[in-house]
Structure prediction request, 166 residues.
Amino acid sequence: MKRYVIVAAAALVVMGCGKKTSESLAEKMIEHAMAKDGVQGKVNISDGKVTMETKDGTTSYAAGAGTKVPDTFPKDVQVYAGAKVLASVSVPNGQNLMLESGDSIEKIIAFYKGQMSAGGWDEKMSMNQGESSVLIYKKEQRQASIVVTRAEKGSQINLTIASDSR
Prediction:
């Protein structure tokens, strides 16, 4: 499924302004790529968002201006205050947000250490490599990964929440 998200992201770039004809063409391209792998599904592209529905569930990808935190993003994981959403990915067993903030890595990591612990998440790993820091948390059957890297003006935050349900 990950490969189709990449194809969908590429289709968004190719289609540019989002004209209806190019949206339809991009949808058919993705559906054709899926069918070649034996995956039957429906693809919908609109307003800078790609949604793919298959028997395994729904996957969606959004990026660019106006991208918002999806309603399905876990409520017990805080989105860093004032951060701009660069991209979001939702898959049947997980969510990912790419955020941008003018704050330092240290300030963002301190925020998440406090918020995640207060929310009942158990810290499993904390690693600081100077230009980037990683936090891993576990709660029930879910794992949260918070990666903060230095950016040109501030920091980039990558939040990934995955369910371990099988």
Notes: The beta strands are 41-46, 49-54, 57-63, 84-91, 94-101, 122-128, 132-139, 142-151, 154-163. The first strand starts at residue 41 and ends at 46. The mean pLDDT is 87.
